[in-house]
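As a warm-up, study this chain.
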Amino acid sequence: MMTFLRSLPLSRPSSLLAIARPFSSTCLAYEGAQRQRYLPRANKQPYPPSKPTSRSKIATSPRRIKRAPPPIPDISEPLPYHVHRTPSQQLPVYQLAKRGGNLLLTRLRKIDGDIMRLKLHLQQALDLRPEEISINQLTRHIHIKGWRRNEVKGFLQARNL
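Now compare it with the structure written out below.
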């Protein structure tokens, strides 16, 4: 009679642990990277692309004019902030790509002192709008929209930080 209503045997303990384990996004990212490694490339065009012909013109966006950094402050008065170097004596300026590569950021870490003053000096030196630079108060990092690692490093090196 109704054999489909009988109780099922218990699963193995390892199966139950695998189901109950918290899922992390790093596992998903690792699996996605493993899959992409073995996929063939669909588009095998050389880079950089060939020069456009008169019929196919590529729309270009206007480039920003690079300005010289502001003058170095007087050495007699110390700066109210300091950026510590990494263990390999490099400046802690990193480029990030988020949202699938659509959001490009530059992160400045290891800041001591008046982080607001450093933000204002960076904003003036790099000619940034206020919405293009922000501070994460919890981690004391400064985030700048776009990849500006070389400009930020030049700013810090000019001030001997």
